[in-house]
Amino acid sequence: MISKDLMDEVSHLNERLKNRKNVSRLNRKDVRNLVTNEIGNIKVYDRFDVNKLKEIKESGSICVVDGSVNRIGANYPNYVEFFQSMALLSSDQEPLVKADILCPLVDEYSERDQFQISKEKLCATELAVAIEAVSHHDIKILMMDGTLMRYSLEAEDLYEDLVKLCDMKGVLLVGVVEEISTKIIMNTFNENDNYVGMLFDREALFNALDMDEGFVVKNHKSRKEEYNIEQAFIRTSKDPCVIAIDIPSQNMDDFDEIISFVLTMSDENTRGVPFLLDLVDKKTRIDNKQAEILAKKYLDTEMYQSIFRSQRSKRVI
């Protein structure tokens, strides 16, 4: 059942969201002017034609990487997490996979540390499979699902290994970000004494760009600069949301071409994310049923029942 109290709380939340300080005052023109004057040059990017895509393919394959995590069990410490990351290569090659598990009962870490360790483990498996792909295959573009920042923060050594390897082998490394959490627009408005409240770039740039429009963020405007990461925003589809694109600073001269490539790989009639990332996400994902089957098949029945099967799952009502 859904109680009246809960319905009232959601209605109240709706009013609070509508009344967020100053956000509703921002219009498209204000945002575009701010971006153009202080953040980056808005311009229209071209989608590659067939000949350009053929040229890219002849210089090396396109590789996309994503990772998945799922958990069976109850609360800490009675659970096990499964990690699986995949590098999807060309259609005639088998995907590369790296996997790992995490269980507090044997890995012995505190409840307070569990979420951080889980994030680090997922990043590590993604980077490991990316390094294997670049090391053993002829790759031109390596596309990661998400910001490069999280790799730098959660698995710094492996990330630096990947960046150096890509530089050595002439591979263009790119992170594609759908869930944007930066606040460059807000910070720039605030610097000009125009306080707009808590405003993330995803919301600020909603419908501010036309399809195929984008801009590269000036160095001093992004905290990613500290990590030698460059950032851009691009609207790739009819959907009014933008996506962000990260690259290592060493690839700055190729940024426009990388943006055009991401644009080309994104269907204008979808939400605007390169279709290859959706494909690798589907292939690598471990759903709840698969996680349960995995545990039941490879763990002793008594072990599974006594440690990992939650009491809640035994309820009959």
User: What is the string of helix and strand elements?
Assistant: HHEHEEEHHEHHEHHEEEHHHH
How many helix segments?
13
Strand content: 15-25%
Low-confidence stretches: none
Which sequence of strands runs across the widest sheet? 1-7-8-9-6-5-2-3-4
Q: Indicate the structural class.
A: alpha+beta
Overall shape: it is: globular
Portion of residues in helices?
40-55%
Question: Which radius of gyration do the C-alpha atoms yield?
Answer: 22 Å
User: How many extended strands?
Assistant: 9
Largest sheet: 9 strands, mixed
Distance between the ends: 14 Å
Q: Overall mean pLDDT score?
A: 91
Question: Care to describe what's here?
Answer:
The protein is α+β, with helices and mostly antiparallel strands. The protein has a domain at 26-66 and 141-314. The protein contains 13 helices and nine strands. The chain has helices at 4-18, 28-39, 50-59, 104-107, 114-136, 148-154, 156-169, 184-191, 201-204, 255-264, 275-284, 288-298, 301-308, and strands at 43-44, 61-73, 79-88, 96-102, 139-145, 172-177, 213-216, 229-234, 243-248. Strands 1-7-8-9-6-5-2-3-4 form a nine-stranded mixed sheet, with helices on both faces. β8 and β9 form a beta hairpin. The longest helix has 23 residues, at 114-136. The two termini are 14 Å apart. The mean pLDDT is 91. InterPro entries: NurA_domain. This is NurA domain protein. Pfam families: NurA (PF09376).
Task: Give a brief outline of the structure.
Pfam families: NurA. The chain has 317 residues and is of the alpha+beta class. It contains 13 helices and nine strands.
